[in-house]
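Deliverable D4.2, example record:
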Amino acid sequence: MNQIELETLLKNLLKTSRETEWLEFKKNNYNPAEIGERISALSNSANVKGKDYGYLVFGVDNDTLEVVGTKFSPKTLKKGNEEVEHWLAQRLNPRIDFSIFEFSYNGKEVVLFKIPAAINKPTSFSNEDYIRVGSITRKLKDFPEKERLIWNNSQKKCFETLAVG
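Output generated by the structure prediction step:
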């Protein structure tokens, strides 16, 4: 994505006027394990809500939706000796192809994770599936009806692909 596409996407995400099951805003909280849980939850929630992607955006105040900027730079952050992006990808199952974009918006640094919706099965992080319930990240096993939706939506997409293909 280029700068204009990223700015347009951020503007559209800010128009939601609040966090959702498939969208989370953060300022600077960048604990790698929490990010992994959020990726799992946003991927699974995007599936449940019929979205192609979930988004985790750093540099936005989640109460006011003001772009405040972030000091988080995932491209340079390490977990042990491993780059955090690789560390996260290794712990996701299936290994979804999430993208990380670092860009400037009105002079403020923003980091945007674009996370594909779960397909075929729930996305797990470190062998645990997560889901968003409103703006809270929870373990998917505590919400069996949402897990059922992920499986049902995945089967529906498979059949639609076969029918079109």
